[in-house]
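Batch manifest line 254
LIGAND: farnesyl diphosphate
JOB: complex structure
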Amino acid sequence: MSLIDNIDKKQLPLHIAIIMDGNGRWAQEKGEDRLFGHYQGVESVRNIVESSAELGIRYLTLYAFSTENWSRPEPEVNGLMILLANTIRQEVDTLNKNNIRLRLIGNIKMLPEYASRELLEAVELTHSNTGLTLIIALSYSSRWELLKAVNHIADDAKNGVLVPGAITEEVLRTYLTTSEFPDPELMIRTSGEYRISNFLLYQLAYAELYFTDTRWPDFGKEHLYEAIINFQQRQRRFGKTAEQVMPNTASDAH
Ligand code: FPP
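JOB STATUS: finished
ARTIFACT:
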């Protein structure tokens, strides 16, 4: 029996978000350049996107490049931009064949022109697909997103579009880059770091967090299945008591 048989298809996380960490260390441990790790990381991206679509996951967000990553050495940043643009261009047909819709979140204006052009074109070419929504977080950070939202809200309040004091959680959500997507229910971080690193800070409020020591280039389908099985074994209470969410269980869970 394979791990996939232990997954309850009726209790899949609606949205999985992943911090794909460890490419650089994976490469350096092999005596290779960090960029080699990112190239291998693309293979993991392919595997995880494919298995998410096969399982029937509706939304998958991948943290591909953070606002802070711009301060990495120039050759690594340039190499990553070329890799991202080329990968997406090459994958458009496969995305369409698998009914996958590509979306981007982040400050795309910061990207070199050739990269933003390729990426936005891929978004356009896949926009009518109705299966998995693959969201790539690029030049993204939560603090950037929240500041952008606050400034936009302040402008709209000044211009009479919003009434100060009457801004609800639902209204705030419409100003986030993720306004069209449900919050992630499962957040996975690879490579043994226990941090959120400025990723979807608002949206992850009630996500189940899953950390694994596996480096991203080694993270394959079976690792994803393990994370989902682990998620399905947890009790999600959203601030309520165990008895409220599962009336027939003991009261010692936290
Ligand atoms: C983190 O590892 C990884 C990145 C900053 C880049 C992730 C990008 C890819 C996998 C490329 C392709 C992506 C798509 C969506 C096509 P790290 O360099 O921080 O590793 P380290 O912590 O070991 O240094």
